[in-house]
Design brief:
The chain contains 9 helices and 20 strands. The strands form 5 sheets. A 6-stranded antiparallel beta barrel has the order 2-3-7-6-5-8. The protein has a 5-stranded mixed sheet with strand order 16-17-18-20-19. The chain has a 4-stranded antiparallel sheet with strand order 9-10-15-14. The chain is elongated, with a radius of gyration of 33 Å.
């Protein structure tokens, strides 16, 4: 079959076209359609496929094999018929913004640090770019600032298919060795790269670039970024959240971090005060078990750490096994289990977990949870503790 004429290469802004149906084959409840020409970009090079409509059918996916573009559509199209294609313009613009933004960032990173772009993917929510070397937060902040400066200058983005002699003289980025006709995308004074994707005509159409996070990845750095409408929508969501937090804290929006820090400090002080009071309360409660061998107690609303300290207080007064539980029959119980005499309670814990639907363990003290009732717990321990 002859290669499909790729209108998306001839004009990246082409969203509507007419073409002749060359084949239509049923596939997995849908239909695989080929045309003599198409403006639908197929998935490839880290960029997702276009969506839209073709002859009244929805286009669900587009892929290319051996130069032939295959459209997965929801209804059959008659071979030989001329059909109209309508590309989803919002999705196409989004992909062009993300892809061009990646070129800008990759070009700047390559120029400033010499790192290569070794991985690129446009996801449904964000874009990830993998660079071949380490980048600090401060360095990425500088890259982001420089990338947006390129956008504000509205640098042109040009597409060319250089002849082999021209290509030999050209210094361009590429993830792998390429042969045959090579498509070169150039962002003026920023980047020259072999690329098969769709791009805006001028950088101003990218709108803005925001690097949202980074992490070490295979000896280099994986950067997550947003461009264009994605960056704008992300800003709106975060600003709305910042306004809400500002209202809750009764603090100016630019002073919320300091207000949150004050709350965190106050919370830490309250937790320390609560722990001190609990320790005194646990010591007083445990005193009632002084001289006894074993102890089984229930306290509502204790954290795992508080349960551990309660069990420790009991072990200081008793000579045998001490078990502390917190919870309700409706939600289940957390537990702490230990031995004042240093006896191994692993076997007892294992038996208890099996009988009470429990999970947990430990070294010196056993801790975990049990999906049961208080009556189940008391019935289990009655013959084992004896008091």
């Amino acid at each position: 079959m002859a290669e499909t004429r790729k209108l998306y290469y001839e004009n990246g802004a082409c969203l509507q076209f007419c073409a002749t149906v060359l084949s239509c084959v049923p596939t997995d409840g849908n239909f695989a359609v080929t045309l003599d020409a198409t403006a639908f970009y197929p998935e490839g090079g880290g960029q997702p496929a276009d969506r839209g409509a073709l002859g009244g059918a929805r286009v669900l996916d587009v892929h290319e094999k051996d130069g032939v573009v295959v459209h997965t559509v929801t209804a059959p199209l008659r071979v030989g018929e001329m059909v109209q294609g309508d590309v989803d313009g919002r999705r196409r613009l989004d992909h062009m913004q993300q892809h061009t933004g990646e070129h800008i960032v990759s070009g700047i990173v390559h120029a400033q640090f010499g790192y290569d772009n070794v991985g690129f993917h446009i996801g449904a929510q964000d874009v990830t770019v993998d660079f071949s070397g380490p980048l600090t937060d401060a360095e990425l902040a500088d890259v982001e600032r420089a990338a947006n400066w390129v956008i504000w200058q509205n640098a042109p983005v040009t597409i060319a298919w250089p002849a082999p002699s021209e290509l030999a003289q050209l210094n361009y980025r590429s993830k792998k060795e390429l042969t045959g006709a090579i498509r070169i995308v150039t962002v003026a004074n920023v980047d020259v790269c072999a690329c098969c994707g769709t791009h805006v005509e001028r950088c101003g159409q990218v709108g803005s670039i925001k690097l949202t996070s980074s992490q070490s990845y295979k000896g280099g750095t994986r950067v997550t970024m947003l461009c264009g409408m994605r960056a704008y929508e992300d800003h709106c969501i975060k600003f709305q959240n910042a306004e809400a937090v500002s209202g809750l804290l009764s603090a100016k929006i630019n002073e919320t971090a300091a207000a949150v820090q004050r709350l965190a400090d106050e919370n830490a002080a309250l937790r320390a005060e609560k722990a001190a009071l609990e320790t005194r309360l646990f010591a007083a409660d445990a005193a009632a078990f002084r001289g006894r061998k074993n102890a089984l107690v229930f306290e509502p609303h204790l954290s795992p750490d508080s349960l551990r300290r309660l069990c420790t207080a009991l072990m200081e007064q008793c000579t045998g096994v001490c078990a502390a539980f917190s919870g309700t029959d409706a939600v289940g119980y957390k537990y702490a289990l230990g031995s004042a005499g240093g006896a191994d309670v692993h076997a007892l814990c294992k038996e208890m977990n099996a009988a009470l639907g429990g999970r947990g363990g430990g070294r010196e003290m056993q801790q975990g949870s049990a999906a049961c009732t208080r009556g189940d717990i008391e019935a289990f321990f009655a013959p084992r503790l004896g008091e």
